[in-house]
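INFO  loader      accepted 1 record
INFO  loader      residues=295
INFO  predictor   begin
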Amino acid sequence: MRSSNPVFSRRGFSRDNGHAGFNTAPQAGSPDAGANPYAQGAGNPYATNPYAPSDAQVGAPPQAPARTGVMTIDDVVARTAMTLGTVVLTAVLSWVLLPVDPANIGKSYGIAIGAALVAFVLAMVQSFKRKASPALILAYAAFEGVFLGVISSAVSTYISDGVVAQAVLGTMAVFAGVLIAYKMRWIRVTRRFYGFVMAAAMGFVLLMAVNLLFAVFGGGDGLGFRSGGLGILFGVIGIILGACFLALDFKQVEDGIAYGAPREESWLAAFGLTMTLVWIYLEMLRVLSILQGDD
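INFO  predictor   done
INFO  writer      dumping tokens
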């Protein structure tokens, strides 16, 4: 089961063309705290309005011109709903059209692995693109859905019928919990927090990659990091990392809206949130599968 999430290496809202993002947003206590690349100043298309009346004409400071085409929370919610909806739709279709049973399990797993590889490549391409590509993001979501549909069908068939529903509810609970904690400021995303999560995620993925290599060349479960007690431990660590990425995603969205990022940047937010939720779902599914399999 795949646990590689390129979300920790993706670009946030870039500074290209004046766009700002989490990776470049000032943090509390930093020398440039409060700096806003969309605030009035040189190079900002919203900074001045040559058609605005002068102070002498109105007798009061001119109002800032109306800003259009900037990202809002509604844009983020709509794009995220479209992206996640694509994942869910293709997952359901894959579950129905590609049922996993002993007669076609090899074919089904082949399709799942192929879809996972395509989704990974599309995610990497988008991660290094200068601008968000809705078509690319939706294509990633479609192939990711195929992978999730087949894997979920296999777990439901060979482990337990209720594992998939439990994993979905668990993912929703993690999302709601992190959102509440972030809104209540129980979680504060700082540069130190960001650096810690990045380092932990890189170490986690590298360790899983080594485990996979041992499994491929040595057989079995490699170093045993994805089954038994160690599997549960590393699965829980994976879920915690996913929760940390959700906090980073919320910070990215908050900064984008506060800085007046262009509306198309909401696709980047949807892209990041989708990858993070997929990460959490897969880790949740693995932990529950191990627990159910031990019963």
